[in-house]
Amino acid sequence: MVSKKFEVPNKCIVPKILVFSDEVDSAVYWASSLKRNNLNVVHQSSFDRAIETWENEVPDMILIDTNGSNAYAQEFVGKLRKETIIPIILLTNAIPESQIIEIYLSGVDDCIFKPIKPMLVILKIRAWLRQTRTLSIDAMDTFQIGDFSLNFSERKLTIANNPTVKLTILELRLLYLLMSNSGRTVNYEKIIQRVWGYQSDIDYAALKNVVYRLRKKIEPRPTQPQYLITLPEAGYKFMPKQE
User: How far is CA 191 from CA 29, 88, 104, 210, in A?
Assistant: First the structure.
């Protein structure tokens, strides 16, 4: 019987999990189970607050537990999937195969049937975290261009002496791609391919949303960008601060 806790080396960043359930008791139960296994957890039982928490807390993974209709969870996943590529695990009661297909098509990465013991969920989470942390950029520690310094392990950006800002995975990938092509235009198709990877159905609206959020974090005046420049009908370009 497996009982070993999720071990986190002292110098490692503790993964953050967003737990979302349509019942308060379930959200608290899973949050407590994950915390006992050395995971950083935030939980919500409100759709709107879960969306707000995802935006503010920038989790590494989302765990959803449904006790009613899976349509509620699918709506939540559908709203997030074009904005994030972090793993999403869904806990659900036994359902027909047709519904399982719909759940995966909505953007869920792993569908687990209840009842299930917490340790198996922990092991699933551990496996998904290992997979997501094999991204090529994770092999690097930091990347710097001018006053811009990216910390990949913590997903943080520092600009000169300004406060450090937390980035989502998509924001980190986009900014790294543009910074590594500093001064050059990167076209929309290449950005979508490199940032979202396998999700070829991503449209320009999703890209614009990520750019919009990123500008709010890095630009002194987001409506008058000086770093992340739009080239109409061409793409985007990163322009480092000129001395």
Answer: 40, 23, 25, 11
To the question of domain 16-132 being in CATH 3.40.50.300, the answer is no
What tens digit of pLDDT does each residue of 150-192 get?
Answer: 988 788 999 987 889 999 888 998 999 999 899 999 999 888 8
User: Which pTM value belongs to this model?
Assistant: 0.67
All CATH 3.40.50.2300 domain ranges in the chain, comma separated: 16-132
* 167-238 is a CATH 3.40.50.2300 domain: no
